[in-house]
């Protein structure tokens, strides 16, 4: 299912919301936010704004079939997200198409009623929608839709919602994403529920009225990440973190005076920019790193065990200095939240040192290699410059490179892989999130300095990336 470096081709089958917050407009923005290629087959046209829906026009169902047929005749579809379907005719057209094409990822958001309270599905079409839901790999009802689908009163507690999700999973024999967005309280929990298990993905409620389109955006983003190779729970955790920021950033948009839209583009708009640019500038160096025999051998598992051990012995030396540098960065961090992030990273590095000593290296104490010494001197010089921004830039490749390698290694089979646990460490969603957060903090730092200092940040980043290349190239060749 993984699409490696090719963006997944994701089709939204949904209604149009001309105000851009929900429907296919939200789907296309969300798919793009997660780096997919978005397509849209339109089921219905609505006239709506942030206060509500004033009219609905549904073209004949045959015309939807014509759109879908034109697409599958030409384009391989990696994932489908289904939203507003409005009527039995449209549901049947989609069901017939799904039966014929069988896309590998199908996410159904069983849209029934808008945030504004307006009906988006004929009441007589509810049974047909439940029937269609059996063809989906993931169904994402809100609490009201969940209640309709299991024919029970609307859940008012999270435990009832989870139980209803379990019953719906059994009824449809598929996976359900139960959404707690409509509950009251400080938490906004969600869960991935199968007939056999419930995996909670916790979240904090963002205080805002701008929740128009959250369900549409969530389902299309998850379809995109699933087609990129993430599991449902990992995809949900990623999207929830993004959603929380999109809800927070929504206040800047000032779109309408009712329930406004979330800010799908918040990551493009703010932070991320300097760090992404620095990463792109190092693209050819990163390619050279991925092509090193040590790195490709790690991925395939063919790497010589002694070479890996020599690399780890140097890694421990590196991590000891790196942890000190992270502690110094935390000291000079501009605010308590940022400071807490760098301290947590420092603790993670120390935990990794202890793990390596306990599980792999014992008391063996190789001398530090030239590259280890030089790389650490470079990091310390960045700290000693007194510039927080430059110090952060210098440590950043250690996050971005390993996160990138981890994602590449996700697709590798773990069967009898000698380095499986090491590959897992960097491929897991938590590490990818940590790396993304480090990038955001570096970009925030870049926004606060002048152009000359930003150039020094870029130089520090590139030098570190070069040391990463040398580290992978030289340490496995150290004398035993
Ligand atoms: N105020 C909030 N703070 C944090 N997360 C929220 C908030 N409101 C909704 N969410 C999250 O947004 C996603 C959509 O949930 P929700 O229950 O609102 O679905 P929905 O009702 O189908 O959405 P829609 O508003 O599009 O109809 C879920 O992941 C939910 O946890
Ligand atoms: C075309 C279309 N599709 C879906 C929704 C539901 O979104 P919300 O519940 O946030 O209004 C909508 N309002 N319009």
Automatic annotation (TrEMBL):
* InterPro entries with a match to the protein in the record: Haem_Oase-like_multi-hlx, HMP/HMP-P_kinase_dom, PM/HMP-P_kinase-1, Ribokinase-like, Thiaminase-2/PQQC
Q: Which GO terms describe its cellular component?
A: cytosol
Q: What biological-process GO terms show up in the record? A: thiamine biosynthetic process; thiamine diphosphate biosynthetic process
Query: Carries keyword Protein biosynthesis?
Result: no
Q: Which residues form the Pyridoxamine kinase/Phosphomethylpyrimidine kinase domain?
A: 17-263
Pathway named in the protein's UniProt entry: Cofactor biosynthesis; thiamine diphosphate biosynthesis; 4-amino-2-methyl-5-diphosphomethylpyrimidine from 5-amino-1-(5-phospho-D-ribosyl)imidazole: step 3/3
Q: Which terms does the record give in the GO molecular function aspect? A: ATP binding; hydroxymethylpyrimidine kinase activity; phosphomethylpyrimidine kinase activity
Name of this protein: Hydroxymethylpyrimidine/phosphomethylpyrimidine kinase
Q: What is the lineage of its organism?
A: Bacteria, Bacillati, Actinomycetota, Actinomycetes, Micrococcales
């Amino acid at each position: 299912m993984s699409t490696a470096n090719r963006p997944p081709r994701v089709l939204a089958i949904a209604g149009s919301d001309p105000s851009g917050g929900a429907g296919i407009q939200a789907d296309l923005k969300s798919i793009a936010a997660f780096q997919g290629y978005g397509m849209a087959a339109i089921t219905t046209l609505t006239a709506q704004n942030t206060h509500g829906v004033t009219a609905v026009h549904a073209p004949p169902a045959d015309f939807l079939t014509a759109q879908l047929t034109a697409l599958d005749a030409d384009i391989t579809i990696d994932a489908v997200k289904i939203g507003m379907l409005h009527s039995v005719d449209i549901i049947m057209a989609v069901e017939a198409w799904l039966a014929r094409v069988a896309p590998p990822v199908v996410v159904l958001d069983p849209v029934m009623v808008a945030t504004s309270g307006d009906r988006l599905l004929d009441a007589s079409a509810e049974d047909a929608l439940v029937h269609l839901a059996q063809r989906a790999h993931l169904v994402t009802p809100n609490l009201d839709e969940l209640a309709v689908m299991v024919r029970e009163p609307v859940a008012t507690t999270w435990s009832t919602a989870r139980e209803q999700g379990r019953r719906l999973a059994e009824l449809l024999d598929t996976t359900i994403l139960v959404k707690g967005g409509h509950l009251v309280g400080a938490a906004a929990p969600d869960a991935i529920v199968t007939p056999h298990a419930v995996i909670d993905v916790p979240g904090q409620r963002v205080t805002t009225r701008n929740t128009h389109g959250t369900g549409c955006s969530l389902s299309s983003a998850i379809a995109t990440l699933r087609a990129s190779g993430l599991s449902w729970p990992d995809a949900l955790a990623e999207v929830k973190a993004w959603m929380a920021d999109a809800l927070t950033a929504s206040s800047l948009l000032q779109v309408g005076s009712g329930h406004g839209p979330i800010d799908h583009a918040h990551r493009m708009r703010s932070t991320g920019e300097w760090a992404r640019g620095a990463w792109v500038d190092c693209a050819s160096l990163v390619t050279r790193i991925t092509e090193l025999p040590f790195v490709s051998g790690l991925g395939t598992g063919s790497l010589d065990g002694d070479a890996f051990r020599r690399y780890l012995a140097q890694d421990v030396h590196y991590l000891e200095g790196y942890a000190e540098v992270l502690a110094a960065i935390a000291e000079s961090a501009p605010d308590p939240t940022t400071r807490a992030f760098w301290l947590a990273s420092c603790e993670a590095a120390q935990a990794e040192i202890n793990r390596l000593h306990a599980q792999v290296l014992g008391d063996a104490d190789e001398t530090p290699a030239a590259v280890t010494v030089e790389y650490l001197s470079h990091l310390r010089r960045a700290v000693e410059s007194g510039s927080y921004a430059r110090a952060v830039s210098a440590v950043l490749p250690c996050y971005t490179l390993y996160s990138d390698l981890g994602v590449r290694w996700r697709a590798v089979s773990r069967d009898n892989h000698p380095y499986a646990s090491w590959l897992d460490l960097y491929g897991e969603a938590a590490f990818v999130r940590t790396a993304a957060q480090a990038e955001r903090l570096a970009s925030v730092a870049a926004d606060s300095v002048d152009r000359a200092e930003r150039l020094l940040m870029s130089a520090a980043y590139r030098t570190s990336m070069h040391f990463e290349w040398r580290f992978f190239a030289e340490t496995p060749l150290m004398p035993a």
